[in-house]
Fold:
Amino acid sequence: MSDRRALLRHLPAIDRLLSSPRLSRLEQSLPHILIREAAQKVVDELRHQVLDERAPLPDLAFDAVVERTASRAAALARPSLRRVVNVTGTLLHTNLGRAPLCTEALQAISEVAQGYSNLEYDLVAGQRGKRFTHVEELVCRLTGGEAATVVNNNAGAVMLALAALAGGRSALVSRGELIEIGGSFRIPDIMAASGVALVEVGTTNKTHLKDYAAALDSKTALILKVHTSNYRILGFTEAVSGEELASLAHQHGVPVLEDLGSGLLIDLTPYGLPREPTVREALQTGIDLVTFSGDKLLGGPQAGIIVGKRVVIDQLRKHPMARALRIDKLTLAALEATLRLYLDPHQALAQVPTLKMLALPVSELQQRCEHLLARLTKALGDAVACSIVDATATVGGGALPLAELPGRAIALAPKALSVNELATRLRRSEPPVIGRIQDDRFLVDPRTLNAEDEALLLQAMGQVLQSG
Ligand SMILES: *Cc1c(COP(=O)(O)O)cnc(C)c1O
Structure:
């Protein structure tokens, strides 16, 4: 112990480190505050390592400590939120930012962000306007709704609708729809937070119209219907249709709200997805209000879209929470641009990345794999064994849980390291590459890669497999 303690004398002083030529030069490109913090952290770490009998002795040579400080400073200077390459085959990975945006949305963001805009300014009247007007007509045109508004995300949309329509009173929900979506969105909690008393009706697998009818009383302000986005109850099941619910609710003078989750604007069954009602179809049942996400299958930015009857939408707009949940101008620009593409469904399918990836035929995925395999083999030589395998992609993001998209992937088996080690190194590479492991192989699913990603993937693979 005392031998190790004696080594502490060799730890350089922070100021001496900072005045080394290497770190002085680094100040031209990195902020001083980060280099100093890096030096302090590195010296602290070294002190702990020296004193830890179980740890191998670190290299205390002055140049080694300087080098370690320089790379630590570079790591501190790297943006925290950055691009990653997604080869998981999950199209809408909530942890990876859900939907990539279309070019039109990126251009709209850039234009609106660079200068001033008519965000809340009516150019014709020359007076204050409303921000939701930029998308309201579009949403109505695409869904058949009378009025629409948008907020920060779908969780916010549901909360706002609950608070505005049923705050201080109660709402009926089927026991089969008391769902949890990842990230603490749980229907009972959301209702409590919105000040709405939850009245559960029916059972887990079967809820009948008479269950709703029996539960309706003078405190009932709303019937809530929730899309069971991320799970399915199979077998002996029954749920009440939108038509029946709307007609029952309207006899009692209360509205029906449906949280659709993903919210399809076009039918995606031709691309192998299960049949889901579109937003238009949901509204056609007579339901008063529908909410859905902007960044799930719609393929736009994070947003909560609310569409339905004008009187109900007006109630939401007047609620104080509407201001707290308001959408920002960059999101609004991206949302408008994405929605405009949907005016021509062929355009949407050709331009919205999520829809493009969804619609990729197996033959195209096979071709991409062959092309990528050739490039990988050329770049990596025999450091890995690569082959093309059948692989199933998923939609993710809590949308269409049972949908499986058949495709192909490249399976990599590194020779000099374990597949877990390969995955770890790829995750920590620059840019980070996120994939999945299946049958002790690292799978590269080309469905979620664009051409630029492919070059980045090759670069990252080269780096991690060559660094021993
Ligand atoms: C995803 C989802 C939500 C939450 O939407 P966010 O846009 O993530 O806030 C709410 N309800 C359902 C049914 C969902 O699928």
Observations:
- Residues 153-155, 158, 181, 185, 226-227, 229, 259, 261, 293, 304, 398 surround pyridoxal-5'-phosphate (CB under 6 Å).
- The mean pLDDT is 94.
